[in-house]
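Dear all,

This email documents one entry for the complex benchmark we are building for the journal club exercise. For each entry we list the sequence lines for every component of the assembly. Then comes the predicted three-dimensional structure of the complex as a token string, followed by one or two observations. Please use this as the template for your own entries, and keep the labels exactly as they appear.
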Amino acid sequence: MRNQASIFEAFLDGRGLKFTRARQLILETVFSLHEHFDAEQLYDIIHKVSRDVSRATVYRTLPLLVEAGLIQKSVRSEARDTFEHIYGHPRHAHWVCKVCGAVGETEIQDVLKLLQAKARAQNFALEEVSLAVSGVCWKCRNANESQ
Amino acid sequence: MRNQASIFEAFLDGRGLKFTRARQLILETVFSLHEHFDAEQLYDIIHKVSRDVSRATVYRTLPLLVEAGLIQKSVRSEARDTFEHIYGHPRHAHWVCKVCGAVGETEIQDVLKLLQAKARAQNFALEEVSLAVSGVCWKCRNANESQ
DNA sequence: AATAAAATGAGAATCATTCTCAAAAGAAGA
DNA sequence: TCTTCTTTTGAGAATGATTCTCATTTTATT
């Protein structure tokens, strides 16, 4: 946490922005989560803990965290942008079950290497990769077969 | 075109839905495009050609075309869902330049194979893959360097 | 033509996200 | 600590893509 906070602070500093209490709370809460989350969920959680940060501030801070490289946009779920923190996480992609909506992860180091090579070949400076896979999870496949 | 139309018709039939004039026009227009498009652009084009199909019908038909396997969701651009047709297109991913917004493509047959293998290993029946890459295109890199 | 099921258009309704702006907080110096 | 200047914040309004409603029209079938 120390680390993430100082990264964020340095990022803000470099832009002449301030590491305010609201931004601290948002950062803390984001890193206390171990699942994908959307702005609304984050806002709700912050409120439950009776800490006061407005919805607007949550929405305003999320893009800053993305730019600081601390979180990334994840799968878009039910018309909402979702996020997840990156810090210390190995790169992974998401799969979403079309039947039950379950979300899971899979490592993609190798995929990233491949893409990196492709990008280089096209003289494109690759910075971010967003990869989502959908299909049917084994639970739903089994449920279906046994009908 | 014949082909796509019959695929769509068969799909609709299987669901007790009708291959109406509006759906035909939308299908034709979609396949006359060679770029990504969003619902609004599609609606505009259909109107220019003075064919009457309401915005609602466009929005209603797009998901049907996706389910029929004729088009797919592409990159989300400026808060809009965009689509592109799949029929006859080799699988590819998109890259988006963060600076100028340019969109390009790159083949990903190999990436898909890798993912397919991963999915199998997790007992997940992979159906769709959405892959978006962002970074800086060579034009913008050069423009930047020479400043 | 008659009937029933499905589709359509127009605009209202939704709902995530962004914007506005007056008031509050933070930083830096005297 | 008091000032001053800049950035942030909260509350709610505004925006804008997408979805929904429902009365009317099409389509397919008899």
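Observations: The mean pLDDT of chain A is 86. Residues 55-67 of chain A form the longest helix (13 residues).
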